[in-house]
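hey can u check if this looks right to u? its 79 residues, i copy pasted from the old doc so theres a chance i mangled smth
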Amino acid sequence: MDIERVNLYKMLWNSIQIQLDKQKITVYRLSKMTGIPLTTIYNYKNDGKEPPFKNMCKIADALDVSLDVFRGGKQKWNN
């Protein structure tokens, strides 16, 4: 995976972290709310791993936000 893509996923995590902080939810709690293993969430957070769409939906649902919240600014996500 190239550095640019890893940086995009880290930016994605930052937008998730903002929501976690606003709602005072820990990563552990997010794991329990979504059913996504804690180690998987830490891979997204620390290693810049790409979360699958279904996991992003689970995270958005758990945080009661639209997926658009995680898109951030005008950054484009190209494959």
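The chain has a mean pLDDT of 87.
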